[in-house]
UniProtKB/TrEMBL annotation:
PROSITE patterns: PROKAR_LIPOPROTEIN, TAT. InterPro entries: Ald_Oxase/Xan_DH_a/b, AldOxase/xan_DH_MoCoBD1, AldOxase/xan_DH_MoCoBD2, AldOxase/xan_DH_Mopterin-bd_sf, N-heterocyclic_Hydroxylase, OxRdtase_Mopterin-bd_su_IorB, TAT_signal. GO terms for molecular function: oxidoreductase activity. Residues 210-296 form the Aldehyde oxidase/xanthine dehydrogenase a/b hammerhead domain. It holds the Pfam family MoCoBD_1. It comes from Dyadobacter fanqingshengii. This is Molybdopterin-dependent oxidoreductase.
Length: 719
């Protein structure tokens, strides 16, 4: 199905030859109320902006379902409509999908982080589809003057059981529009699903293959100008002065102006070059001369940053109880782990279109968090949120970076100044070197086992930048207690089975901006946790998988790790190969991975295969889950052996893919993904597949070579 996302409903109805009314079913926020909004009769001549609804059904029975979440490859474009279509009793082949603009009153929170789209919304989406179905059945029963119980819905029609008579949804629109939504609806049992749980082909595949899908960089407006911004490579530096004489000599350049963007409360400065084409703006930027004021903050390099983190490891308050337990362990070890800074490096660099008028703002682009951006612009420009329209396009990757409001604000400020719509485009170098970044981290791990070969003491102290602009303004950073807290990705049963554990750490002070990155928290903590648990397994001379399993009492954990052992044939693994595993929990899902490595002709280490088992509970589309786990493994592979962001004199070093190499297709190992079947509540899918890979890989390399990898990234050629 081809999707032309800029097609208005007026145009759609006109081109299709439809007239009369459409049926629109909305949802009143908050979702906890679980109430369907009333179906209303709407004149077909109204613009799409006036039809803020989840479902619309036109007079010919064509169903349009609105996706209220952003789509950056994770599959919401398919999964959310698939949920609604199941209860609505329509085929996905007969459904159109459209993005819904930011509207928290209608759609509730619309962020796309925390893997929340399905786990946070599935019940509400099911009820919306079921409410529409029941109202259409009511309308048909009234038309035939029969009892509702004698009717059922199937494939976009309501059917009378006894006579076989049927009416298409489109013919029931006017009658259904007069009905009140039912206060409660019965939802299907899982065994009765026809669409949910099935590997249906994604509706966005064809448009992304043939080029008709609209990403942020594809969107154009009449009279739109283009802008690029010269920003301070040291992040916080101010514009002292700039010389734009040569820049303005470039044909098409119309404006050169100072601009700001907000990063966690701090205003970062730059100079924007605006032109009638992107090429002219970029050429003008190369001729721009800017003098920066970089006083008042540190210009740190990577070596200084990690020295500071390691010093911070020694600052947390000691835990006397843990020290006693550590000394009383039958055998004990300690280890130090290190994780690097990382860029998000989405395939589509940041970009945003803004059109600011006196009393309204409209945004178009790869927006991951529409509500936040709407609220931020409303507050900063003193314009009611209802007059701030945020339109989502497809995203060419996001990983948390495109949830941030800094780049839409920058575009809006430029638009306001030049009094025209403008598209601000970040170059690849801008996108990779200006942050915010995933923070680096260091870990001090200590632990021991008891006489029963189980973990007796377990401590992890970390030092890292907190998410934000950096804590360098605090005179003294707050100490973090070490006898409480949790570690990202660590399974819940460890908190019950380990008698003495201690977690905590220190926020390291630095002016470098840092933020969330796919599977935040777990993407760094899990490497230390699962690697060190593996070290404790070897200390106890135990099989690493069985060692972990002995600490689990929850049947769900036991089933998952048993499944991993089965699909990987763990107990029969070749002694000449290296095998490692890790199991993590985050965003409501549990993922176990086993990695097999070997040496090529006795030399270079090769990753042969990755086995992954995902337990995300109730799920929608298994193909989407497998794709997300595979994509997570590839991203984790790159962060493990390919790339990192370094700093010199306060500036990011890596600026493009020649120095920040992403995995090539020849580096990708075979992957086998399995999905657990159970009745658990749905968990996330887009993020939980990432954290387990790095420790599983490094544990496998230890099994093969006897060398313990404790610092990422590393080179397979040097193992």
């Amino acid at each position: 199905m081809e999707h032309k996302l800029d097609l208005s409903r007026r145009t759609f109805l006109q081109k299709a030859g439809f007239s009369g009314v459409i049926l629109a079913l909305g949802c009143h926020w908050p979702a906890s109320a679980a109430k369907a909004g009333k179906i209303v009769q709407v004149d077909s001549t109204l613009q799409a902006t006036e039809l803020m609804a989840w479902i619309s059904i036109d007079g010919a029975g064509k169903v349009t379902i609105f996706n209220h979440r952003s789509e950056m490859g994770q599959g919401t474009w398919q999964a959310i409509p698939q949920i609604i279509a199941e209860e609505l009793e329509v085929s996905m082949d007969d459904v159109q999908i459209r993005f819904a603009p930011a509207n928290p009153q209608k759609y509730g929170p619309q962020p796309r982080e925390g893997s929340f789209s399905i786990r946070g919304w599935y019940q509400e989406l099911l009820r919306i589809g079921a409410s529409a179905r029941e109202m259409l059945i009511d309308a048909a029963a009234n038309h035939w003057n029969v009892d509702k119980s004698q009717c059922y819905a199937a494939n976009g029609h309501v059917i009378h059981r006894d006579t076989g008579r049927k009416l298409g949804y489109g013919l029931l629109v006017q009658d259904a529009a007069a009905l009140t939504p039912p206060p409660q609806v019965a939802l299907k049992e899982r065994k009765d699903y026809k669409i949910i749980g099935k590997p249906l082909q994604r509706n966005d595949i064809l448009s992304k293959v043939n080029g008709s899908a609209v990403f942020g960089l594809d969107k154009q407006l009449p009279g739109m100008l283009y802008a690029v911004v010269e920003r301070n490579p040291r992040f916080r530096g101010k514009v002292k002065s700039f010389d734009d004489k040569a820049t303005k000599s470039v044909k098409g350049v119309s404006h050169v102006l100072k601009v700001q963007r907000a990063v966690f409360g701090l205003m970062y400065e730059g100079v924007a070059v605006v032109a009638d084409s992107l090429w002219s703006a970029m050429k003008g930027r190369t001729l721009l001369k800017v003098e920066w004021d970089d006083a008042g903050f540190e210009h740190l390099g990577s070596e200084q940053l990690f020295i500071r983190m390691n010093e911070d490891l020694e600052k947390p308050l000691p835990s006397d109880a843990f020290e006693t337990a550590f000394k009383n362990s039958s055998a004990a070890i300690d280890a130090h782990y290190e994780m690097p800074y990382q860029s998000h490096s989405c395939m589509e660099p940041l970009n945003c279109i803004a059109h600011v008028k006196d009393d309204s703002i409209e945004i178009w682009g790869p927006i991951q968090e529409a509500n936040w951006i709407q609220a931020d612009l409303s507050e900063r420009f003193k314009i009611p949120a209802a007059n701030v329209r945020v339109n989502m396009t497809f995203l060419g990757g996001g990983f948390g970076r495109k949830a941030f409001p800094d780049y839409p604000l920058e575009a809006a400020l430029i638009s306001k100044e030049i009094k025209a719509p403008v598209q601000v485009v970040w170059t690849r170098e801008d996108d990779m070197s200006l942050g915010p970044f995933r923070p680096g981290a260091v870990y001090k791990c200590r632990g021991g086992v008891d006489n029963n070969n189980k973990i007796f003491s377990f401590q992890i102290i970390s030092a890292s930048q907190s998410i934000g602009p950096g804590q360098d303004k605090d005179a003294t950073a707050q100490l973090v207690t070490t006898n409480a807290g949790e570690m990202g990705g660590l399974l819940g049963d460890y908190y019950k089975s380990i008698p003495h554990y201690s977690f905590g750490g220190m926020p390291t002070k630095s002016p470098i901006p840092t933020m969330w990155w796919r599977a935040p928290g777990a993407n760094v903590d899990t490497f230390a946790c699962e690697s060190f648990i593996d070290e404790l397994a070897h200390l106890a001379a135990q099989d690493p998988l069985e060692f972990r399993k002995a600490h689990f009492s929850t049947p769900r954990y036991q089933a998952l790790i048993t499944k991993l052992a089965s699909v990987s044939n763990w107990q029969s693994r070749n002694k000449n190969d290296g095998w490692g595993m890790a199991i993590t929990e985050c965003f409501g899902s549990i993922v176990a991975q086993a990695v097999k490595v070997s040496r090529v002709n006795g030399g270079k280490v090769r990753i042969d295969k990755v086995y992954a088992v995902m337990d995300c509970g109730w799920y929608v589309n298994p193909d989407i889950i497998r794709a997300q786990v595979e994509g997570s493994i590839v991203m984790a592979l790159g962060a493990s052996i390919n790339h990192a962001t370094h700093f010199e004199d306060g500036k990011a070093v890596e600026k493009n893919f020649h120095t920040y190499p992403l995995p090539r297709i020849g580096e990708i190992p075979q992957m086998e993904v399995h999905i657990m079947e159970n009745d658990e509540k749905p968990g996330g899918v887009g993020e939980p597949g990432l954290p387990a890979f790095a420790p599983a890989l490094c544990n496998a390399i230890f099994d093969l070579t006897g060398k313990r990898i404790r610092k990422l990234p590393f080179s397979l050629d040097e193992v």
